[in-house]
Design a protein that fits this description.
heterodimer, A: about 700 residues, alpha+beta, six-stranded mixed sheet, 23 helices, elongated, B: alpha+beta, nine-stranded antiparallel sheet, four-stranded mixed sheet, 28 helices, 15 strands, about 10% strand, globular, MTMR12-like_C (chain A), Myotubularin related protein 11 (chain A), Myotubularin-like_Pase_dom (chain A), Prot-tyrosine_phosphatase-like (chain A)
Chain lengths: ~700, ~775
């Protein structure tokens, strides 16, 4: 393999780099004449932006197409990523990665080489390029598209090389690989420290702080899983009822699927608790004491307990994966669907249908949590996919603080990352057949909420896009591992982790040295400050600010004795249960899957009506402050065009539709208007002064 | 009406806590069964734990209702025709039904339901109240279909009835659905009201019997507002003259008055504009047919023209005459100074009226929902149902056609001649669309109203026939104007800052189509209008009738409500700049898409233009033909024009093109979904953003006023101008329309369902006026 091994011949470290090295690689092997000045420029460009351990495998000058105007630059393939570096663009030290020009190898969904109108070759790992490409197209799994045309004139071998290098690098790339040794520059740190950091929930302190924030007085942080011996997929710490002993927790958790017993997700300020747990491990044979422990944990001190069959009415993993694949096919720029058949094709993907079911279910559960003081337990067999989705959505719907930037990031960190959502497997990293982008489905749901309630969210569509694009970038471990245990192991949490980081980094953070690990929430790795500013929704105008909860009287917490009412929530209705656990006498209703039973006709009446005796659309009064009930009708569930149709040139520009990011533009018009008004008036002013800004501020 | 009675009846034992009241999940069919009052309730009531209404209760309700009864507001000239008491208006709420007792009346203007709930309105809710049409009013012209429910079966009602229904379902053209239960109404009243409604809404009518005339006669002495304030009416020579000047078309085109008094043609307006070199006697030759009539001139001098086709003749001699005539005409307009013209035949190769009518009938069915169960059922298949109606596709095709024509005018420097049989349907649509996209003036409220006045009213669009206002023939019906509004909505939705008006403006304009106090949409041609108004005036008094145009919005809305019609974010035209060219102003726009905004003129475009010009010249040697239309090259030219426009940042004061791709054409949700309670999102929707913006605008304005006051050294501490009123509570996404619906569906139960269950006695103490029509 003539291109193999070549990459090892030169290794670009970020600090010292001679331009000749970047040049010598291709030259020594190929001996092709290369225009000197361009190479030099390239060399210095690369020198400024390489990551430790990054090796440039091949590069070629090219033109980025599909955008107007076309952008000349260089296509670079390294062992970590594919980058299109526009002429004159300098990678800033503060953002070692670029959200705009980098394609991580794991993100490459489809690679095509084109020569002329008829010759198109789909390049799979290991395939051999049959011709010299005029153009290559890289379709990102995140729906981005990189389309690079190569210049002719003696440079064709380079085009060939870079394409082959991409094929090769993609084949060798392991999804678990992480960009090593990325550090945040000091500049980045200082700006970061102004904002409150996102708690990574790897310490008891984090959990304790979070618990206090939620005012969950009946709960405590349990350290029973500190050594991951209850379950590796569970976080080291979690919340259990105050009066439950750790020994009881351990015993009770043994009777749940993979040891994922009931834990608190969120404490509603009105008094209800939202819990999540895995399926009952029905094969076990618990004794009376164990059953009592399980029951009291599910009951969480409430007299009213509702078990929610999470999977009921929701798609399964295979459904989600299939829908996502179909959606990606539909959204390809060359998708062959005719314009007038677009809608039915979109319906055929079922993606929007799944989004709708998730929202509808989440809306029902938030009604359950809000309408009465009770314990609501989300139960999914694995407790690692849809429980997280549902519990996060419920919190977004009912807790205004979850809709802030900080709150949302901690929500994802808690309900997805710490709760052990198998990101790597679900996003296709581990090669197992259980790939299903549940997290992306969640982001779509959040986007739906964002567009339905544009004033209730502090973060913008741009932020959601950034999060969407981050799931396959191997800069941090956040999305690259399946369990907290693996993440901790890799991140050096249990070893002397400071070695991983370059010197000088951990010192200034002495006060916070417990957790120097970088997470996806360190946005300035990939986003410039200017971009980060756009994470904020300018239209954020919450009807109820986060701290304006109407304090309701908290009922006396621990209710002695068994719960007085127990329900199973499925198919949009509550069914009474005789017992919470399936072991005592008859098989539980939960053992029977209710997925295939039809929803009763009555269910067109929403749960909100049933619970409050009021129609959901009635008006402001019956809805408690802060609760959002999303619309789930066909016309209300929309396609996230700015995400899925990004590969299409016509969508990339010129959409001033009234979305949240459109609002930003509109706001700038507004300011412009203001500026226009002011000078029009000031000429009339006699005292020949003043800065319009001071006028405005004075008149306040 | 797929209901499952068993589910609701058996609800108690299965799911006790959820059902404070049994809800009938089905539609009208279940109504009236078993309450045991008036009509033929023969079935024994099923046992159920909630019995809401007992016959004696009904009796008391009736008394109370009459006490609280609201008086009927009649417009000047409006006459009460028939009425019925103790009618129950049923309100659909998800799956349950509630009723409000009241009086159903039918006048020569509207059908109105007088319930007792009007007093419940608070400020917010009245904010967008229509002064002419109340919330429970249906103008006779707004009625689309009437159904009767007989023994739970829904049938269309028309003509003489042998049997009278127990329930009346009225589908309106603005997509409201009303259910009136007549079970407790006296039989003779039922007969009178049902046959009255059917007769007055469905029987063919004479033009002279339109309420328009009674209203104008009765309101004769009210002060007339000057219609010129709201739009250019185009009923004088000067109006046309000014329009020519505005568009700089006056060099090559002239206004003519040959048709004064409609001597030449009744289809044409009294004044219009033709090419300057056209002989005036030619206009009369075929009664105005075959004459290129000027619509609008583009900044580069190219013009949009329209022409109605010559009558179809069999006779060879006549055909020869026609041919010679056309040759002469074509020669006039193909000679310099006129640009070469491309003929766009809209009668063939494009949409037919039937197609449009069919698509719309299918489309509107998606929104005329009798009960919510039905709605949820269609919901899963929403997209494919939508697609199969092909309404959105028709919108796309219209927009596309307009873009094609713009490409000719703008990029190829050609005149475009629209050809249609009567030049009054698709011609109006396409030519107005072209102007909305090309002429920023048409995107102001005044300009848009003038445009409608010029292209639709003076263009002789047959509103009477197309809206079927007189119920004379269904065959002529086609929602052309609505299609136009929907196309404009797509533009407004895609480029909001470019328009001075909002989607709410378009929605209320579409509603005004059915309000017969405005003359604008109730004539087939200016000739017909003038004839009818003129004769009337000679009969009675010397003063001619003062017919109201729709354009004065103060007739329908209070000033506060009118603010919802204007777009606070409209990017106004800078006063100084005259030339409107893309990319020259508003540099602040779209700074967000940084690396891409560099606008450069595409060299390819210039090259291409020459090439096609060459091609056209070659082709024109032979004859204008459809060949050009279908030519491959032109398709490419269109694509290139479209792509290159969209690849650059839009200038809101220049040319504006819509996105035409599949995902970009959307449902005009405000108009079509506004009456469907399920479609409401509390505190959500674009309204939330809008209200925030409005608030900011008000703030800015207030500051401006303060500055101004300071500058004029008016030290007097003015009482703080009422600070911008924060609308209290969360608005619904369907605002401003949803609130109108809201108070009528006032809940019965303020208590939680749990309590109701625990204490069944509460059920008896339920509010009186509201009656649940459960499956009792």
């Amino acid at each position: 393999m003539w291109w193999g091994g070549r990459g090892q011949s030169f290794n670009i470290a970020p600090q010292k780099e001679e331009p000749e090295m970047g040049l010598s690689g291709p030259k020594s092997v190929e001996g092709t004449g290369m225009p000197e000045p361009r190479s030099r420029q390239l060399g210095s460009c690369l020198a400024s932006g390489g990551l430790p351990g990054e090796q440039i495998l091949a590069w070629a000058p090219g033109v980025r197409k599909g955008l107007e105007p076309e952008m000349p630059g260089t296509l670079i393939c390294s062992n970590l990523r594919v980058t299109f570096q526009p002429c004159g663009w300098q990678r800033s030290q503060e953002t070692p990665l670029s959200s705009e020009y980098d394609f991580s190898l794991a993100n490459i969904g489809r690679l095509e080489a084109v020569n002329g109108p008829s010759r198109v070759q789909l390049l799979r790992p290991g395939s051999l390029l049959k011709f010299i490409p005029e153009e290559i197209l890289i379709h990102g799994q995140d729906f981005r598209l990189l389309r690079v045309g190569f210049e002719a004139g003696g440079l064709e071998p380079q085009a060939f090389q870079v394409t082959m290098a991409i094929i090769q690098a993609r084949a060798q790339n392991s999804p678990t690989q992480q960009y090593a040794g990325i550090t945040l520059s000091k500049a980045g740190q200082s700006s970061d420290s102004r904002k409150p950091p996102i708690p990574l929930l790897e310490t008891t302190e984090d959990w304790e702080t979070e618990r206090k924030k939620q005012a969950a007085r009946g709960w405590r942080v349990s350290t029973v899983n500190e050594r991951f011996d209850v379950a590796t997929s569970l976080p080291r710490y979690f919340w259990v009822p105050k009066r439950t002993l750790d020994s009881e927790v351990r015993r009770a958790f043994g009777h749940f699927h993979q040891g994922r017993g009931p834990r608190l997700s969120w404490h509603h300020p009105g008094g209800s608790d939202l819990l999540r747990c895995g399926g009952f491990y029905t094969a076990s044979d618990p004794n009376k004491e164990d059953i009592r422990a399980v029951e009291s944990m599910l009951q969480a001190g409430h007299s009213d307990v509702v078990l929610v069959d999470t999977m009921d009415e929701l798609p399964n993993l295979a459904d989600v994966q299939l829908a996502h694949l179909r959606l990606r096919a539909l959204c390809l720029p060359d998708s062959s669907v005719a314009e007038d058949k677009w809608l039915s094709a979109l319906e055929g993907t079922r993606w929007l249908d799944y989004t709708r079911s998730c929202l509808r279910k989440a809306s029902d559960v938030s009604v359950l949590v809000t309408s009465r003081v009770r314990s609501v337990v989300l139960q999914e067999r694995g407790d690692r996919d849809f429980n997280g989705l549902l519990s996060s959505l419920v919190q977004l719907l009912s807790a205004p603080e979850a809709r802030t930037l900080l709150g949302f990031q901690s929500l994802v960190q808690r309900e997805w990352v710490a709760a052990g959502h198998p990101f790597l497997t679900r996003l296709g990293g581990s090669g197992s057949s259980e790939e299903a982008p549940v997290f992306l489905l969640f982001l779509d749901c959040v986007w739906q909420l964002l567009q339905q309630f544009p004033a209730e969210f502090e973060f913008s569509e741009f932020f959601l896009l950034a999060l969407h694009d981050s799931v396959r970038v191997p800069d941090t471990l956040t999305f690259l591992r399946d369990t907290p245990w693996e993440r901790g192991k890799q991140g050096g949490q249990f070893n002397n982790y400071t070695q991983v980081y370059t010197s000088g980094y951990s010192q200034p953070l002495a006060g916070n040295s417990i957790n120097p690990q970088l997470s996806v929430w360190d946005w300035n790795l990939r986003y410039s400050n200017k971009q980060i500013l756009q994470f904020r929704n300018p239209g954020y105008d919450p009807e109820h600010c986060p701290d304006s909860w109407l304090p309701r009287q908290q009922p006396s917490f621990m209710v002695p004795g068994p719960p007085s009412s127990m329900w199973l929530f499925s198919r949009g209705a509550l069914t009474p249960l005789n017992q919470l656990c399936p072991w005592r006498d008859s098989p539980s209703l939960l053992a029977v899957s209710s997925r295939w039973l039809p929803r009763p006709a009555i269910s067109s009446e929403s749960l909100a009506d049933q619970e409050w005796g009021l129609p959901s659309h009635w008006g402001a009064c019956p809805l408690p402050p802060g609760l959002l009930l999303p619309g789930c009708l066909g016309p209300q569930i929309r396609l996230w065009r700015r995400c899925y149709l990004r590969g299409r040139p016509e969508v990339q520009m010129g959409l001033s539709a009234p979305t949240i990011s459109g609002l930003q533009e509109e706001l700038s018009h507004l300011q412009e208007l203001l500026r226009k008004w002011t000078p029009r008036i000031s000429p009339e002013d006699h005292c020949k002064e003043k800065n319009p800004n001071t006028i405005l501020s004075q008149s306040r | 009406m797929g209901g499952a009675p068993a589910a609701s009846a058996g609800g108690r034992c299965e799911r006790p806590p959820l059902l404070p009241r049994v809800a009938a999940s089905q539609g009208g069919g279940m109504l009236g069964k078993g309450v045991g009052g008036g009509g033929g309730g023969t079935k024994a009531p099923k046992p159920s734990f909630v019995s809401y209404v007992r016959p004696e209760e009904i009796h008391t309700n009736e008394k109370e209702a009459t006490e609280k009864e609201v008086t009927l507001h009649l417009l000047p000239g409006e006459q009460l025709l028939c009425e019925a008491n103790t009618v129950l208006k049923c309100v659909q709420e998800d799956s349950c039904q509630r009723g409000i007792y009241g009086r159903l009346v039918c006048t020569d203007f509207k059908i109105a339901f007088l319930g007792d709930d009007e007093s419940a309105l608070d400020n917010d809710e009245t904010q967008f109240k229509n002064k002419v049409i109340g919330e429970n009013d249906i103008t006779l012209h707004c009625v689309d279909q009437i159904y009767g429910v007989f023994d739970e079966k829904k049938k269309t009602l028309f003509g003489q009835l042998k049997k009278y229904p127990e329930k009346l379902v009225i589908h309106c053209k603005d997509l409201r659905v009303f259910h009136f239960c007549l079970r407790y109404t006296k039989e003779e009243e039922v007969k009178r009201i049902v046959s009255g409604i059917i007769h007055h809404t469905q029987a063919p009518k004479l033009l002279k019997r339109l309420f328009l005339f009674s209203y104008a006669t009765a309101a004769r002495n009210s002060p007339a507002t000057d219609p010129k304030k709201h739009a250019v009416m185009f009923d004088t020579l000067q109006d046309w003259c000014r329009e020519l000047e505005r568009t700089k078309g006056n060099v090559k085109y002239k206004e003519v008055s040959v048709n004064e008094g409609y001597k030449v043609c009744e289809r044409l307006p009294a004044y219009f504009v033709v090419p300057a070199s056209l002989l005036e006697e030619d206009i009369a030759f075929f009664q105005g047919r075959g004459i290129p009539i000027w619509c609008w001139s583009c900044h580069n001098g190219c013009a949009l023209l329209k022409m109605s086709a010559l009558p179809k003749e069999q006779d060879d001699g006549l055909l020869q005459i026609q041919k010679n005539f056309l040759d002469r005409i074509y020669k006039t307009i193909h000679r310099p100074p006129y640009e070469t013209a491309k003929t766009e035949d809209l009668s063939s190769n494009f949409l037919s009226l039937q197609e449009i009518q069919m698509a719309y009938s299918k489309f509107k069915q998606l929104f005329l929902i009798d009960n919510s169960t039905e709605f949820w059922d269609t919901d899963i298949k929403w997209f494919s149902l939508l697609e199969s109606s092909s309404w959105l596709d028709i919108i796309r095709r219209c927009l596309k056609k307009a873009v094609e024509i713009i490409e000719c005018l703008e990029a190829q420097n050609m005149n475009v001649l629209l050809l249609e049989d009567n030049a009054s349907d698709l011609c109006c649509l396409i030519s107005s669309l072209v102007q909305v996209m090309m002429d920023p003036h048409c995107r102001t409220i005044f300009g848009f109203q003038s445009l409608v006045q010029k292209e639709w009213i003076m263009g002789g669009h047959c509103f009477l026939d197309r809206c079927n206002h007189l119920r004379q023939s269904d065959k002529e019906e086609a929602p052309m104007f609505l299609l136009f509004l929907d196309c404009v909505w797509q533009l407004v939705h895609q480029h909001p800052p470019a328009f001075e008006f909002t989607e709410t403006y378009l929605t209320v304009l579409s509603d005004s189509l059915y309000i017969p106090i405005f003359s604008t949409f109730f004539f087939n041609s200016p000739h017909q209008k003038d004839m009818n108004v003129g004769r009337e005036s000679q009969d009675s008094q010397s003063k001619p009738l003062n017919l109201l145009p729709v354009w004065d919005w103060s007739v329908q809305f209070e000033p506060k409500a009118q603010t919802l019609l204007t777009n606070p974010l409209y990017v106004e035209k800078p006063k100084l700049e005259k030339v409107q060219r893309k990319g020259t102003h508003f540099k602040h726009q779209r700074q967000l898409s940084l690396p891409l905004t560099q606008s450069k003129s595409s060299p390819k475009r210039g090259f291409f233009r020459e090439e096609t010009d060459h091609l056209i010249k070659n082709l024109l040697g032979k004859r204008i033909s459809k060949l050009i239309n279908s030519s491959e090259e032109l398709q490419d030219g269109f694509r290139e024009f479209y792509d290159s426009w969209h690849s650059r940042p839009p200038s809101y004061q220049g040319l504006l093109l819509p996105h035409l791709e599949g995902p970009e054409i959307k449902v005009w949700a405000q108009r079509y979904l506004r009456w469907i309670p399920e479609a409401q999102i509390l505190g959500g929707g674009g309204v939330a953003t809008m209200s925030k913006l409005l608030e900011m605008m008000e703030e800015v304005q207030r500051l401006q006023e303060k500055i101004e006051a300071r500058h004029h050294s008016q030290e007097a501490p003015q009482a703080e101008a009422a600070s911008p009123q924060r609308t209290s509570g969360r608005l619904s996404s369907l605002f401003p329309f949803a609130l109108l619906q809201r108070h009528s569906s006032k809940p019965v139960l303020p208590t939680s369902g749990w309590k109701a269950l625990g204490d069944e006695d509460d059920l008896a103490k339920r509010e009186d006026e509201f009656v649940d029509l459960g499956d009792v």
